[in-house]
Design a protein that fits this description.
single chain; alpha+beta; hydrolase; GTP binding; binds guanosine-5'-triphosphate; GTP Cyclohydrolase I, domain 2; two-stranded antiparallel sheet; EC 3.5.4.16; binds zinc ion; GTP-CH-I_N; five-stranded mixed β-sheet; GTP cyclohydrolase I activity; GTP Cyclohydrolase I, Chain A, domain 1
Length: 224
Amino acid sequence: MKQEKMLSDTLENKSIVSSGRASQCIDDDCLHELQDTDTGALSRIADAVSSMLDGVGEDPEREGLVKTPERVARSMRFLTRGYRQDPEEVLKKAVFTEAYDEMVLVRDIDIFSMCEHHLLPFFGKAHVAYIPDGKIVGLSKIARVVEVYARRLQVQERLTQQIRDAIQNVLNPKGVAVVIEARHMCMVMRGVEKLNSITTTSAMSGEFLASPSTRSEFLRLIRP
Ligand SMILES: Nc1nc2c(ncn2[C@@H]2O[C@H](COP(=O)(O)OP(=O)(O)OP(=O)(O)O)[C@@H](O)[C@H]2O)c(=O)[nH]1
Ligand SMILES: [Zn+2]
């Protein structure tokens, strides 16, 4: 298959050293995308992109577009790399026993995701809080778990709940609260074309549901 041949040529030209699933590339700026060695998946996406270029009335063979299917394939696999990561495993890497039992809040976590309806980006901020019950988690792991779920095809509501559920399952804390504020490009650059609309979703558990004062404290802390 043509795209498959192009992909394997690229892998050779970029000095990829393959060792099992992971590979190393000498070019730092392309490291993330080129670490993906699933040439079958890459070539299926690339073939679809060629058809898409044809479908929009372009010539997939013209100079500027010749490598586009391969670039889009790598980009798309990068933007959906969360399917190949286990969020609960990510969290479990840094769980510590600690008596702290007040709210822990990581706010303003940047998110970039893609809506499953139009494959267009939505992006914004996530705010994640929990109240420990004997166990805390490394702070970066909260941002990482957000990242794992965001890097899939999503609806904002599910993304919000999945983050809550992963933290709840792994830490079993007294409560978890997640708020996401995002702009959906499918509502901005097409469709209803509302440039300034922002969607807010929330998912809570435990004390954040049971105690209005805990919920208010959280909402006050995430106010801009
Ligand atoms: N609930 C929810 N809807 C979303 C999200 N992302 C995109 N959508 C919506 O998904 C819906 C799909 O509606 P359809 O009528 O099937 O698609 P469409 O004809 O492209 O709709 P328009 O965007 O209104 O032009 C649209 O209303 C989008 O705004 C999301 O994260 N959550
Ligand atoms: Zn959409």
